Batch of 2 targets.
Target 1
Amino acid sequence: MRASLAPRRRLYNTGAKLLLWLSAGICCVLLLFVIGYICYRGLPGVSWELLTGQESILQGTAGIFPSLVNTLYVIIVSLAVALPLGAGAAIYLTEYAKSRRLVNAVEFAADILAGIPSILYALIGVILFCTALRLQKTLLAGSLTLAIMILPTILRTTQESLRTVPRSYREGSLGLGSGQWHMIRTVVLPSAADGIVTGCILAAGRVTGESAVLMYTAGLSTVMQDFSSIENIMKASGATLTAALYVYAKERADFAEAFAVATILLFLTILINFSAELAAKRLHKRKK
Amino acid sequence: MNRSRTRSSPSELAMRTLLFICALTAVIFVLLITVYLILSGLPAIQEIGLFNFLFGDIWQPTSSTDPKFGILPMILTSIYGAAAAIVIGVPIGIFTAIFLAKAAPPKLAALIRPMIGLLAGIPSVVYGLVGMCVLVPCLRKWLDLPAGDSLLAAVIVLAVMILPSVISVSETALEAVPKEYEEASLALGATELETYFRVTAPAAKSGIAAAAALGTGRAIGEAMAILMVAGNVANMPSLLKSVRFLTTGIAIEMNYAAPGSLQRQALFSIGLVLFLFIMLINILLSIVLKADKGDNL
């Protein structure tokens, strides 16, 4: 049947097929090249000492433990702020809101927040948290800025997972005399939990990969910070993994270390993507 | 009738109010961001003069004798850079999306999709690092330049970085096209590939346009990756010269500009200009999406 096509159409078909395979091929080759190259230059530098050690010029040791801790700090604090806000907003929008206008306004605002580039968040962090709220350049200021940035991610994923909870669950609970919030807490939220977890994983991924905001709001020190008291925790200021990578590569031209950090970031990205996919798969299974 | 009474028990009412406040935070943040960006961006523009700021072609903020604050080179670089990245990245992205949504064997598509997700997840500094260590030296050698840091390097990095968002948005749009369209086309004797290109893709055109708009936003807004490969001299845009984008213009001087100085205030003004660009793209995007809804009705 194919053989009976006119030559021009056959050419079109072959050309189109080639184009599609070529484009997809380019994407895959690009990814494999980036992963391969990072691992090739970075893996030899990754060692237990690097992961758990501190950088010291006096002792000539390299180590990125402080940056790892800072990254964890930023993930935890920004999620702790954004999760209640984002999930709460999503709950209000799907369970309570009666005015379509309010829903539209909040969704539009979330879309705008999602579209603002990170360098502008950096400026906002500098103006709002570092200067106006007098937090100076601290991990806390950086985390709060990032909380705004990941708010739309959490809001949208929570909203989506709340929508997958069947109406009958809600009606059953309300019919038995439960109050609205009691119903949400005991029936809706448990069934939407995996969607919310997916949102948190995605948000953690964005925070891990973010650099511009943290470079200007959280500082660039690669020395271990003092987390011994609440006051010190609030004052701590340092570089996360991405900021440390930038400092090593661009300001110190220390590429061995930069690629080692890049390798670690790459593994974190793969880990985060994998777990997000796993969580999303569970969500889809339930949907069916 | 009784429900309204149970619902307004004190704890229920408290939760309802609390959640309402949560819902408002997104709106409040947007307002705060807009107001603060405008308030901190305006003083420098007033001092420099809007025309001199937007259309001045020399940026030398730290010159002691004759400081100049013209951001035209950065504006043009951002526009050219984003446009070129889109010309390269969007077609590849759309073809890959057609491949994944329609033409690929399902098993292969299931293998490639997570790879695209990974491409989206790789931090921008990592792209910058690879660009710095692979792309820049290669460009220098191949094109016989004194330095490989150039608009071209930045464009290539940007094109790669917008791929995943273009792919995922247009794939969703392609998958939403009703099966009947394709079946009708196939029944009329078109081959599968002709159907994808001449029926499915045109039917998903507004989704694909949204993907392109999203890519544009990403390309205009990216800072760290191109900071590492573009050279960062505020030249008028030229493909093989070192250039400075709006984003990198902020990034490169932010940590050095003295607080309260006109230079620092001018950086906030650049931020305001960038913000306006992004809002413009967002508005265009929502118009495109709304037009689509109108079509379907």
Target 2
Amino acid sequence: MLKELKPAFVVFGLLTVLTGAAYPALITGIAQTAFQDQANGSLIVQDGKTRGSRLIGQAFSDPGHFWGRPSATAPMPFNAASSGASNQGPLNPALEESVNNRIEALKASDPTQTAAIPVDLVTASGSGLDPHISVAAARWQAPRIARHRHLPEEQVRELIASHTEGRQLGVLGEPRVNVLELNLALDKLAATR
Amino acid sequence: MTGNGYLQIGLYLAVLFACAWPLGRYMARVYQGDIPLPVRWLRPLERGIYRLAGVRGDDSMSWTRYALAVLIFNLIGFLAVYALQRLQDVLPFNPDGMMATTADLAFNTAASFASNTNWQSYGGESTMSYLTQMLGLGVQNFLSAATGMAVLVALARGFMQRETAALGNFWVDLVRSTLYVLLPLSILLSTALVSQGVVQTFNAHATAHLVEQLDFEQPKLGDDGQPLKDAQGLPIVEKATTGEQRIAVGPAASQIAIKQLGTNGGGFFGVNSAHPFENPTPLANFLEVLAIFLIPAALCITFGIYVGDRRQGLTILSAMTLIFVAMLAVCVWAEQSGNPLFERLGLDTQASELQAGGNMEGKETRFGVVNSALWATVTTAASNGSVNAMHDSFTPLGGLVPMWMMQLGEVVFGGVGSGLYGMIIFALVAVFVAGLMIGRTPEYLGKKIEAFEVKMAAVAILVPPLVVLLGTAIAVTADAGRAGIANPGAHGFSEILYALSSAGNNNGSAFGGLSANTPFYNTLLGFAMLFSRFWLIVPVLAIAGSLAAKKSIRPGAGTLPTHGPLFVMLLIGTVVVVGALTFLPALALGPIVEHLQMIGAR
């Protein structure tokens, strides 16, 4: 028993230094040298002000902005200091109530839009920070945006198209639109008109 | 499922096997002491560790000594993680000022990371300091994985040795697993992940100025910092407005690489690999989910080379793959079919090139349904337990798949090392059952399987179900257990069954609605994780010791071949029958009755 104690402590100590200090320090060095933007959170800086991260969603409720996925983080939605999901089961009455409320809000935002609402626009994301919506969810909102921004709907659809990320390498993942980047582009368009 | 879904899954399997083959050969050389050229420059480091520790590489251990070394080493790791959490408020690398954790949470987390489970009762970005994450959790990610690999190598030696007590040296197996396998792969993977957007910094959180001001409600706190409650006991809320978003960052990439490769699964952030900083793009997702199966699959190849018959490894790999593919098909189908509620409410749930459709509650847009279901099946087939979508919000059958994959005993790929040694235990039971049917003494890889081995195999196979079912029974009968349930009805029972299945098989994923950060669950699940891990390792090493002491016999006319399609089917049959018989009654009370309610409601 005692014979194994010394190797146990020494091996533990040395491997702790190696995997717990040297390894993360090495990776941080590589990351901060080669991929500085990504390693620090892919932040969007405009006029010296940090507007957000390309990877982290923000809450939008203004009808002149595209709305993102519902977020279940607490106490406010899109709380990037404490990620979280609804964890509501498929038969939970609270899920039906939440989805119903979101449907009502979307219909109230654009009574003329009669197409079926894409499911991702009324279901909470896994992280509560999902920066994307599906292409279908962005297109569903196009008429509302066009009206509130006094833009031709065609131009809004073009803006969506130019902000659509396809499947990565043509195969992986799902086509999607980054809501924050889309809204910043929309605001910029309004400012330059 | 769309054509692209088949393509993504097919690509996943193709790349997995293409990588597992060379890695398996590489690891076989590492464990035989023939260190491959690209990492040979690390030999002085390896020798230096042995010199300082007073380890002699040729000092081969008996199974009892090997087991003792495993236990002492893991006890030290357990104590270190406990101490780091309790002292993190006064230790450095804590820029966001995290408090020390409670005693029960520290116990649970220490048990969780020492046992390669990585069940998380806490949210990483709001609980753990950078120091705890790196020096405690990150280190255990490496060492608990290396422990599993070492035990597997000792078992493989048990088959190869003849009439000796020697199973090799635990310290050598441990150091080589870490130095030549886990570290190089982690460096490659974490660099690739950073390029995709995974954060890696020692800075404190970033602050962003929101595009839209945000009004919200938050619980009103009293002078003591506790939430105030009104006369009915409901929390009092107050209105608040913010124009800022506090964005948690940290040294995440280095930890995420090893949590995937070492089948650990403990995330840097609370929602694990659903978090955009932990899993930012579909390519990052592909690499992370590939990393889960990579070493478990490659070890099958290593094992075949090690015992001198590659067909033996391929047979086990085939059995694992067939069970996996069948369960994956069920999960993808269930999630893509979605929740009838959404159709009743008139939503568009059709999968197309414009949207993923299906059941999107708890899923991320960039992953959609196919990648979420793929991850859920992979992470529970292997004992990884990381998630990129919330299993609690899966459809009943979609959630049954990950639950049952864990209940099969984490032998379908399973944990690094532990999955394969678990599957070899099932192979022993399979040859024993076949031996009874054909009336011959059962043999496996040239060793007679006798009463002692079968008894130990029975212990190894029965401990996890016992822990799971007994633990579930305790939790559903205790008030403190039922208090944690988040979803009403059968789903609430599923949450508890899932938690115990996860802890009792060292997986670590959760139906996350369950409020598990309570003294009751932290203690119950902590003991479940420790029992299942170490009450498996000890009997496995006992079998290895017993086999090593035996003569090796040549296969004769009456020997059942343990390779080829017949044995693949026999092995699958053994795993599935044991798993189904043990858990069907419990599953019927949870996901199965919930599924019937769901289709009934249509």
